[in-house]
Structures are given as structure tokens and as C-alpha cells.
Amino acid sequence: MNSATHIAIIMDGNGRWAEMQGKKRVKGHEAGAEVVRKITQYCAAHEDIQRLTLYAFSTENWKRPRLEVEFLMKLLNSYLKKELNTYIKNNIRFEPIGDLRAFSSSLQATIKDVKTKTAHCDGLVQSLALNYGAKDEILRAVNKIRKSEDDITEAMLSNALDCKHDVDLLIRTGGDHRISNYLLWQSAYAEFFFCNTLWPDFTIKELKKIIKDFTKIERKFGGLK
Ligand code: IPE
Ligand code: IPE
Ligand code: MG
Fold this sequence. Notes:
The protein is of the alpha/beta class. It has a single domain, classed as Undecaprenyl pyrophosphate synthetase, CATH 3.40.1180. It has a 6-stranded parallel β-sheet with strand order 3-4-2-1-5-6, sandwiched between helices. Helix 4 links the parallel strand 3 and strand 4. The protein starts with 5 loop residues before the first strand and ends in a 9-residue tail after the last helix. 36% of the residues are buried. One 3-methylbut-3-enyl trihydrogen diphosphate binds next to helix 1.
């Protein structure tokens, strides 16, 4: 049976969730943050899940209205500050991925603080993808290693990426069937699950069902059975 060692999620549908209730889009992001908390705690309590990598802000999301972007930055800052103790209590290590240099110095400081203060935790690794784009990640990695005199190997490139771990199970909520520049290299052999549920409505029950279905898939990695 497969083990969902590394789960990655494209948490989509916050804005639509809010709009469907006649609320402002940002209310959907607030509700979405609560689901991040619940899903993270569930994964932390399940030893076979070692990594949870959540898409929180893409390199393309800067195109959104300024007020929405500002709200997301504030929400991220307050979420991380509020969650720090929960991370430590649940032995969760926080490892952000993405190019953090684009953020304000105060937000960068918060991100760094949570990363440093959870560095000793050896349970679940929760990665938030922040100003993350897979193309950007690959380009940054190539630029890091291109001065090497040897030919670049798969291991060299993989090690130079922000996320160095292959994804087993990739979930996208919100009904769209695309990967929106997420973990392109790491998902080479991931199993994809797309669900219509908007992220603020996503439940532990739904995650459990997806994991259960995932465990039954025959993964062949190009081989035969
Ligand atoms: C995902 O929800 C969260 C972020 C991209 C930050 P959206 O904000 O994309 O919600 P929809 O897809 O517009 O409903
Ligand atoms: C992907 O969602 C990014 C995050 C969930 C952070 P988007 O809503 O930005 O993706 P597209 O624009 O529908 O592809
Ligand atoms: Mg969206």
C-alpha cells in the first residue's frame, strides 16, 4: 500500500467561497487560514505523513488588486505569529519555500522567526509556498549551480531547489484541473486529486477519503507492476 509521505495542496477557492455568501473575497482567505490550521494538525498527528506543502501565495498572485495582496500579507503575518506555539507544541517544523525577498522586512522577520524557532521540531514538516512559482524555483536553482564545471545532474538540481522532496499526493481544491506553476519538478510522479470543494469547505473527512483512495493506486514509476 502506498504511503502519502509528502502531501502537497493547491488551496484554491477562497474568493469564490466568500462571494457565494455575499462577502468580500478576503473573508474567504480568513476562513481558508482556519482550514490550514485544521489540516496541518491532522497531518501532524499522523506519523506516516511527513511533509505537507501548501500553496499559499504564487509568484503570479501579485497581479491581484493591491488591497487583496495587502490583506494576504497581513493575514500571513498574523497567522504565523499566532501559530508559533502550536507548531512547537505539535512538533511541527516550518520550512517556507519560494522567494521570500519580495516580502516586507517585517514579514520576512516573522517568517524567519517561526522557521528558526521550529528548526528543532522533528515531526511533520509544514512548508508554506510563499511568493512561490515552480519556474522561478527551477531558474533560481539553475543559477545557483550553473558555475559548476561538471554537468548538472538530477541530484544536483533537486538539491538546489527550495523543495527537495518528491510529492506523493497532490490535491487541488476549487474545481480547476491545473497546477498553476506549483512543484513542477517534484510532482513528476505525484498522484493528482482534483476536488470541487472550495478550500474553506475542505474537511479532514475529505482528506482522509483522498488518502484512502491514494493508498490503493498502483504506482509504477514507469516500470511494470
Ligand atoms: C486561493 O484562493 C488562495 C490564493 C490564491 C491566495 P483564491 O483567492 O484563488 O480563490 P478563487 O479561486 O478566486 O475562488
Ligand atoms: C493557485 O491558485 C495559487 C494558490 C493557491 C496560492 P490561483 O487561483 O492563483 O490559480 P489560477 O490563477 O486559478 O491558476
Ligand atoms: Mg483561485
